UniProtKB/TrEMBL annotation:
Name this protein carries in UniProt: Sarcosine oxidase subunit gamma
UniProt superkingdom: Bacteria
Coiled-coil annotated spans: none
SUPFAM superfamilies cross-referenced by the UniProt entry: Folate-binding domain (SSF103025)
Transmembrane regions listed in the UniProt entry: none
Lineage summary: Bacteria, Pseudomonadati, Pseudomonadota, Alphaproteobacteria, Rhodobacterales
Length: 176
């Protein structure tokens, strides 16, 4: 697999593909959330869009009983979750190969995202994330800083999203 990093001339946006890691889809009933969180050593926020981090792992609440968890390869989260399955029944699926993550940063990162995203990403608080669409692709947008975002894209939609971002970057460069 190749990783790309693009910055053309004095472009106001940097687009990078982040190296893959462990990505898990978790479904657990709210009554069992705390037990599972303790076992994994990672808080599972209850507010949709909220994130929690510990030991290099990060959990994003996508719904009342749904989380996306990212962690370094080899993290022991699946084993820890399996150990408490009888007390906290859940579904934990490794979806690491399903998506890629792009990092968008720079003074035009918000503008680049809003070209094809109906969500008001400028209004997203730093430290939150949301499932939305970018043109026709379902994505998850993470706001890591005032001008720093991550966007999770299904691998099959990645060429389409990259092409749109390349067009946006070209237009930004032409406007300089």
């Amino acid at each position: 697999m190749t990783y790309e990093k693009h910055q053309f001339h004095a472009s106001p946006i940097l687009i990078e593909e982040i190296a893959p890691g462990l990505r898990l889809s978790l479904r657990v009933k709210p009554a069992h959330r705390a037990t599972l969180a303790r076992a994994m050593g990672l808080d599972l926020p209850s507010r949709v869009g909220a994130r929690a981090a510990a030991h290099g792992a990060e959990a994003l609440c996508l719904g009342p009983d749904e989380w996306l968890i990212t962690a370094p390869e080899g993290a022991g989260l699946p084993k820890a979750a399996r150990a408490v399955y009888s007390d906290a029944p859940h579904s934990l699926v490794d979806i690491s190969d399903r998506e890629i993550t792009l990092r968008l940063s720079g003074p035009a990162a918000v503008d680049a995202l809003t070209t094809c995203c109906p969500r008001d990403v400028a209004a997203m608080a730093v430290g939150t994330a949301a499932r939305t669409v970018f043109d026709s692709a379902t994505v998850i947008v993470w706001r890591d800083g005032p001008a720093e975002f991550r966007m999770d894209v299904w691998r099959s939609f990645a060429p389409h999203v990259r092409a749109l971002l390349a067009q946006v970057e070209t237009e930004f460069h032409a406007g300089l």
